[in-house]
Amino acid sequence: MLLATLVLLAACGSSGPSPRAWAASVCSALTPWRAEISKLTSSTNQQMTAQTTPAQAKENLVRLFAGAEQASETARRKVEQAGVPKVEHGEEVSAGFRASLTSMRDAYGRAGATIDSLGTGEATVFYDGVRAAVETLQREYDASALDTSRLNSEELKRAFDEVPECR
Q: DSSP class of residue 53?
């Protein structure tokens, strides 16, 4: 009897956050990430058109992509810390968010490494390399988007619509 009670208590204690609590945590993680990525995207676009030397552009772009990589990792870690929502397929939903952020983080890291490896002696060659790295990043970024087609949780949809952190 005591063993059965302990098992039940352990099962109750290990349950994840409610859909609303999980959605609030996820949105709290993603809102600053989106703002940072938006700012970094704008800065990257400015770097591509600014009248700077290739060496200056390289330094700035490598720093920008490192910032995007770090912001993505911070968001991924916060989503991981949010736990698994108490919904059907909650583990799959949580894993999908984490995998998407991991892919984005890695794409930014690869883009930064690619740009860091470019020579700056020939401006045209350098900027062609930057364009290619950014195009690859965009493809990888698009491919890392979360596939929500199998993650149809009405509870989570409602939670994301209702919690203030997601507005």
A: -
Query: What CA–CA distance (Å, rounded) separates 21 from 165?
Result: 10
**Tokens at residue 75, please?**
């968001």
- Burial code (b: 16+ CB inside 10 Å, e: under 16) for 81-101 equals ebbbbebebbeebbebbbebb
140 neighbors 107 (Cβ within 8 angstroms):
yes
Provide the token pair at 45. Answer: 């676009």
Task: Write the pLDDT tens digit of every residue in 101-145.
Answer: 999 999 999 999 999 999 999 999 999 999 999 999 999 988 888
pTM for the structure as a whole = 0.84
Who's near 121: CB < 8 A, 6+ residues apart?
54
Report d(CA 79, CA 159) in Å as an integer: 16
pLDDT confidence of residue 141: 85
Instruction: Give residue 13's pLDDT.
Output: 43
Contact 23, 159 (CB under 8 A): yes
